[in-house]
Amino acid sequence: MDNLDYGIIGNCRSAALISKNGSLDWCCLPQFDSTSIFAKLLDEKKGGSFEITAGPDYEIHQKYHNNTAILVTRYSDGENTFEVHDFMPRYYKLTGKYNAPPEIVRYIKYISGRPKLTVFYDPKLEYAQGQTTNHAKTNFIVSLTSKKKFDTLFLYTSFNKIEVLNGSEMTLKEDGFFLICYNEKILKPTTEKMSLELERTKTYWLDWADRTPTYRQFNKEIVRSAITLKMLTYDKTGAVLAAATTSLPETIGEVRNWDYRFCWIRDASMVIKVVSELGHKNSARRYLQFIIDLMPDKDEKLQIMYGINKEKNLTEKTLDHLDGYKGSKPVRIGNAAYKQKQNDIYGILMDVIYEQLAKFSNDIENGEELWSITKGIVWIVSKHWREPDKGIWEFRGEDRHFTFSKVLCWVAMDRAIKVAKIFGKTRKIEKWTALEQEMKEDIHENAWNSNINAFVQSYGSEYLDASVLLMESYGFIHAKDPKFVSTVKAIEDNLSNDGLLYRYKNEDDFGLPSSSFTICTFWFINSLFKIGEEEKALAHFERLLGYSNHLGLFSEDIDFKTKRLLGNFPQAYSHLALIECAINFSRKKSEEKILESIG
User: Fold this and answer.
1) DSSP structural state of residue 339
2) pLDDT of 459-485, one tens digit each?
3) Angle of helix 191-210 versus helix 219-231 axis, rounded to 10
4) For the segment 165-223, what is each residue's pLDDT rounded down to a tens digit?
5) Within a domain: residue 128?
6) How far is 220 from 366, CA to CA, in rounded Å?
7) With contact defined as beta carbons under 8 Å apart, do 248 and 568 qualify?
8) Which of 31, 63, 171, 359 lies in the 20 to 30 Å Cα band around 595?
9) Trehalase-like N-terminal domain: which residues (predicted)?
């Protein structure tokens, strides 16, 4: 498989990736950042997988059940047909809580004829660090390992357990199931119960999707992206993951391989802003509580990222026994970037706090705490905004005065002033406004390069950077301001490659970037739209949508030449930016319709 041709299933506790041929190649249980039980994605021989195959005459087609996170893989040779409905159970219980156990259901739906299938069940627990053995018991197959650490996994099935373990060909005459469980079940699962789990989970997702507004254009893409973002949220704490995977390389054979199963304050805040715009305010509320819980001390500086259970130490290690995706080593777990200083996170967080207060001011439970956090952020920003940092792209070399970081420090002050107005705290406004103006002048003076007629990556630099395109969307500059228009044009001339954007072109700690960072292309499309080049923006957007995989999913990067997806997958950043672009085009279409009807 040359592309990331995978579907994601999940239940806001963990997730799994299933290939377009029906092979379960990645899953960590009991939660997103646990050790893997299947990791063929990161080592084709040693990683472990759960494959369902049929004969060579069978054609395989895969799609999501409409508006759900249930993945349907259909196998048919014309006469003999069956489907695999893959999902992780999630539904509302009478107790008022969600049922989201650490389980995967592979429901086998008989359609016609006498289809034959073969199962290859090969879990490798604990990142395949030791040997995993499988044993058929009366009610289940148990897999266990004990070399590095003791761990177990249970498989319940309606099929013959010995035939499953032997990989024997089986003839399907009726519906059946496989249930992968982290915990041993108290009550024995049956096909009827699994069918009910499927229907309950389907109802949950259909209800959730129904609460998302309907858009005139690109509605299908918006809903699929929204469901994907929902699957990347961790219900227990409100954290939002950057992606469901670790160590999928930005470029094949290179070392830019990182663990993304954590909550970056920046990524998560941007996701929450979009998700709340789609009307899902519970996710926003839980995320705000996640942030409140992380800031017990008024002068405590935020880390750029945390574990999904609020862990602060994310020590980075390498798994040298794994070959990596397509041989791209090293495979990393943990992420040393948690130690980095990035000043932009305060502005991004203040933007989310302001958005939630503006939208749901009558329904915010933590007003006093949010006001305390606002004052704390202003204090930290006022003390540190003049200092250099690592920037949005997490350069591991020397600190610099990155333009994006400075703009987001300004955003922190701008939104803090607006929050003060909401809360009626007028005494703070005069002092804060003076600092906000000082920051704005500093950025205009030092980030603008008149030689290339653009805002640049960092003070005194001549390098361009796609992140400065966000100046407009954060309200720092108007879209029609000549400085912004010329910046967009300069970025188009210098960073665009066949319609796909580099983040930047200067060398970083690992050399020159050789793949496009997907979110940057969405930012560029949005900027073209805002400066009035709407037809060109739409053409770029439709072409970019064509680079998604067969299910409409995006990873972090796209190869400039082959257009294959690269980097961790699916990437929350990419899908939130897709939604923002799609909503802009859809609103424009709605406005045109209204004008037509008036005319």
Assistant:
1) G
2) 999 999 999 999 999 999 999 999 999
3) 120
4) 999 999 999 999 999 999 999 999 999 999 999 999 999 999 999 999 999 999 999 99
5) yes
6) 35
7) yes
8) 359
9) 8-138
Q: Please state the length of the chain.
A: 599
Q: 201 and 235 in one domain?
A: no
The answer to whether residues 217 and 203 belong to one domain is: no
> Cα(21)–Cα(75) distance, rounded to whole angstroms?
9
| Separation between Cα atoms, residue 284 and residue 265, nearest integer Å | 13
Alpha-carbon dihedral angle through residues 489, 491, 492, 494, given to the nearest 10 degrees: 120
The reported pTM is 0.95
Helix 344-360 with 265-277: angle, nearest 10 deg: 20
CATH number at residue 19: 2.70.98
AA letter at 212:
T
Contact indicator for 474, 411 with CB cutoff of 8 Å: yes
Query: Are residue 157 and residue 243 in the same domain, yes or no?
Result: no
162 shares its domain with 245: no
DSSP of 428-457 = GHHHHHHHHHHHHHHHHHHTEETTTTEE-S
Helix (H) or strand (E) holding 85: strand 81-87
In 3D, which of 244, 118, 216, 157 has the Cα closest to residue 592? 216
Give the bridge partners for 51, in sequence order: 23, 120
DSSP class per residue in 461-503: ----BGGGGHHHHTTSS-TT-HHHHHHHHHHHHHHEETTEE-S
Domain that holds residue 584: 211-598
Q: What is the C-alpha separation between 576 and 270, in angstroms, rounded?
A: 7
